[in-house]
Amino acid sequence: MQSSTACHIRLATKLDIPNLMRIRLAVRENILSNPARVPDSAYHPFIERGALWLCEQATGECLGFAAADLADGSIWALFIAPQAEGQGIGQKLMAQMIADLRQTGWQQARLSTQPESRAAAFYRRNGWTAAGMTSDGDQIFTRPL
């Protein structure tokens, strides 16, 4: 892993949605086959609940974001801009998601991602355990909180 990028973790606002969508569409894995499946309105509930965080450099550049679904104990999103991968941003954002879920009272978190992807390897390295497959072929992971 490269050295950690200096970034500030802060709650996202609706004004950040274009940057979040830009990152989501730029990823190299877990690519949206149909970007219309995740319109800007999909981000609103997470922003309104205070559960969507981003990593921002001092220059204002958004390097990654993550959102926890506090209603069902899952990680809804964790995406890093391709140029910022491997710099510790995912670790920082995941820690925030885990803290949010724990604070809400969840004792276990879950998420799903493409099997055998770099994301799947990242989650395994960080204490997540494979727990089956979704109906559309993604790997389900769980992690005690």
Annotation field: number of helices: 4
Order of helices and strands: EHHEEEHEHEE
Q: How is the CATH topology of the domain at 8-107 named? A: Aminopeptidase
Beta-strand percentage?
25-35%
Name of the CATH architecture of the domain at 8-107:
3-Layer(aba) Sandwich
- What percent of residues adopt helix (DSSP H or I)? 25-40%
Average of per-residue pLDDT values: 91
The parts where pLDDT drops under 50 for at least 5 residues are none
Instruction: Give the quaternary arrangement of the chains.
Output: single chain
Global structural class: alpha+beta
* Beta strand count: 7
Within CATH, the superfamily of the domain at 8-107 carries the name Gcn5-related N-acetyltransferase (GNAT)
Spatial extent as radius of gyration: 14 Å
For the sheet with most strands, the description reads: 4 strands, antiparallel
Widest β-sheet, arrangement of strands: 1-2-3-4
The CATH C-level name of the domain at 8-107 is Alpha Beta
Overall shape: globular
Q: Whole-Å distance between the termini? A: 25 Å
Chain-wise SSE layout:
Layout: E1 8-11, H1 17-26, H2 44-48, E2 52-56, E3 62-69, E4 74-80, H3 89-104, E5 108-113, H4 118-125, E6 129-133, E7 139-144
Antiparallel strand pairs: 1-2, 2-3, 3-4, 5-7, 6-7
Structure description:
This protein is α+β, with helices and mostly antiparallel strands and 145 residues long. The protein has a domain at 8-107: Aminopeptidase. 27% of the residues lie in helices and 28% in strands. The chain has helices at residues 17-26, 44-48, 89-104, 118-125; strands spanning 8-11, 52-56, 62-69, 74-80, 108-113, 129-133, 139-144. A hairpin with a 4-residue loop joins strand 3 (62-69) and strand 4. It starts with 7 loop residues before the first strand and ends with a strand.
